[in-house]
Structures are given as C-alpha cells and as structure tokens.
Design brief:
Layout (H helix, E strand, L loop, with lengths): L12 H19 L14 H11 L1 H14 L1 H7 L4 E19 L13 E23 L1 H68 L5 H35 L25 H11 L1 H22 L4 E13 L12 E13 L7 H68 L4 H35 L5 H10 L3
Antiparallel strand pairs: 1-2, 2-3, 3-4
Helix pairs in contact: 1-5, 2-5, 3-5, 4-5, 5-6, 5-8, 5-10, 7-9, 8-9, 9-10
Amino acid sequence: MIPSRQPPSNKRQPFSRVRALFLAAVLIPTVIPALSAADGGEPADLVSIYIKALDANPQYQAAVAEFREASEAKPQALAKLLPQIGAGAGAGELDQAVSGNFFRGVLDTDEGGDGIQVNHRNQFYSVGYQVGLTQVLFDWGLFKTYDQAELKVGQAGVKVYEALDNLRLQTVQAYFDVLTDQDGVHFASAEKEAVGELLEQARNKLSNGLVTDVEVKQAQAEYDLSDASLIDAQNTLEVDLTQLQLLTGGQSYSRLKPLGSLFQPAPPDPNKLEVWLERAQSQNLLLQDRHYGTEIAQKEIEMQKAARLPTLDASAKRSYEYADGGITNGIAAGDNHAIDQSVYLNFKVPIYTGGAITSAVRGAEAGFQRAQYEEAAARNDAKHSTQVAFLNSTAGLSHISALNQAVQSAVAAEDAARVGYGVGTKTYSDVLLAVRTRYKAERDYTQARNGFIVNFLKLKQAAGALSHADLLTINRWLQQ
C-alpha cells in the first residue's frame, strides 16, 4: 500500500521538513517528465498535473511567500541584540555676530568696571563627524522577541506543509473526480444506447402486433430520460475539468489516464486505528500549527511583562569638529579643533506608564487562552478526521468487493432479462430495470475504487504522513 512516513522525533521537526520541502519541490520537476494532454494528444497523468499545480496554485505560493516573510523576523529580532553602530558627518558655512558689554563688574578696565565692549561679526567654515556604538546588555523583552520570532518561522514552515498537503489532496480529488465523471459519461452513453435498442425492439414488436402503443411510448420516455442523464453527466465532467484547469493555471485536458490493473485495494498499513490516532496527535499539521500558536502567545505574555523590567545598555561616542573661526570658540578665534569622547552605561527603570503595561499583559493572557482553545479544537479535529478516514478506508474495501460482485450479478441479470424479453417471458420494464441496475452498479464500482484512493490520502493527511511518494505510488497504478 502507500508507504507511510515515520513520526517526527520532536516538535522542532518542521524546520528540517521545510528544507526538504523546497528540495523536493525543486528536484521532482527535473526527474519526472510532465505529460500534457496538449502534447501529442497523450493523456495526462497525476504527477504531471501535480507538478503544474505546484507552480500555478496561488494558495500554495502564498504560503511559501509567507514562510519567506516570516523567516526574516528572526534576523530582525537578532539585529536588535547586536551592536548598533552609526556615523555622521557635516559641513557648513556659519555667520556669527556678537555685541554688548561682557564681564561687567568682573573685569577692571581703564574705563572702570563696565567690562569689555564687544561688537564683532565673524564668518567661517566648520566640518565635523560623529561615530557612536550602542550595545544592549539586558533587555528581557528583546530576548523574548527573538524567541517568538523563532517560533513564528517554525509555524510558517508548518503552514507551507499544510498548503502543500491541501494541494496534493485537491489535485488527487480533482483528478479522480474527472475520472469518475468520464466513467459516468461512458456509462450514461452506453445506457442510452441500450435503452435505444430496447426502444427499437419495442417498435418492431408494435409493428408485429406483439406489444401495445403504451409500451412504445414508455420506451420513448425512458430513452429521453437516458438522453437527459447523459447531458447531466457531460455537464458534470465539464465542471470538474474546470476545477482541474484552475489548479494547474488554466491548462486544459481532454484525457486522463485511468486506474490500471496494478491497483489492488488494500487495508491501511498498519491496519490499527490506535496507531493512526497516535500519529495524528504528534504529526497532524493543523495541530502543529495551533501548538506553535500557543507557544507564540505564551511568549507574547512574557514580552509584555518584560516591559516592567529595567533595561541596560552601553554606549560609546566620539565626535570631532574643526572650524576656521567662530566667536563662541573665542573672540575672533581661528583654527579651532574640538574632540569629544564618551563611554557610558544607560540604565532605565519604568515607574508608571498609565496602566498601558497592565492592559497589554491582560490582552496577551486572553490571546494565550484563545490559542489554547484553538489547539484543543485542532486536537479534537485531528482525532475525528483520522477516525472517519480510517473507517472509510477499511469500509471501502468491503464496499468495493461487494460492488464488484454486484456488477457481475447485474450483468448476468441483464442477459437473462434480454433473453426472457425476446421469448416473451419478461416485460420491457423488466429489461429496463436490469439495464439500469447494471450501469448503476458499474458506476458505483468505479466511483468506489476512485473514492477509496481519496479516502486513504485523507487518512494520511490527518496523520500528517502525506508525501510526494504517495502521489508517485498512485501514478504507477494508472494505465501506462
């Protein structure tokens, strides 16, 4: 049966899985030839359609872009913990003027104690630069921001896998929907042809006086109903082909490869519900996503509480300035140089913020409770979806076997009814019922076979074990 993956060893597994994802997404298109319905009229297979969907599906591409965006949160958070170095420079032309008595009552001059009379104007050039460095020594909020950023990267990686698994399942579902529809059109056409033959026999019998006009009219009505059923089947096929085209960026398909003789339905491996439930609790992607959300919400509480703690950073600064004049540097002075160097610690303690920190903590705690409830709901959903998919898969085997027997019995019943109708022991209604029972059994049988594959992939998705290899296995089951 479809091979399963081993459960992850710990909750950090998605990081390595994300790397494998991109490698697989790059390598698979290079090693598997993409077969298109438009190339030489060849029928398309599942893998060729899946490869096109990888490039064309907007939901998957959006998840990949979200992962790349989230990946930048970690270096951004780390950058705030590393040294911050800045430099600046300036140059300008200055015009300074000063007038008045300076140092009155301080300096004794020939004129008395009126100080120095100054009335001077000076124009000069000035250039300078500044270099500064700041290093965080303690800021608990920044440390928690870095931890939260790391979790967000992991969550974004899980979301990529969620989108990829959804795309795989959508592709398989759309592919086998089209196969089911193609079979439906085939059976509806065959049923219409069979009912047409019965109508022609009824007309011949009427001309020979063996049946009444009522039976011919009934046969005509049944033929018209068969024609309407064929139209419905063709319309359903066109609708599902449109869905397949949307998944692959508008690529049109006229034929798909159906299941071949290599497909032999088998029970899930292992055929134990408790094993699949255990895998779902550790590997289900939606549950992993919600678990990351809970951890991120926990870090948010710690970040908001950290706003109450003091912060400490170290700074160093050097500045230099040169001016070829300037009154403030000395009356009519020239050729002035100024150097300023400083190293200091900056310690800050929040005392009162108007209740903002308390409010932010309450909001973060409410967000944490919401995340916990969402994780619990995801755990229940994982358990339920795994149980349903497992039961559908195991029941599908018995269903396929029963329908296979029903097809054989229906074919035999139709042959007997036709013989009886020819010799007069069976009525038209008996034959019509046998014909429709046969084609219904055949439709149900092919639908059950196709549905079995989809249900088993749903089981693997619920258990977080769906992979590229599963689609490759299904592709080998198609007619080559």
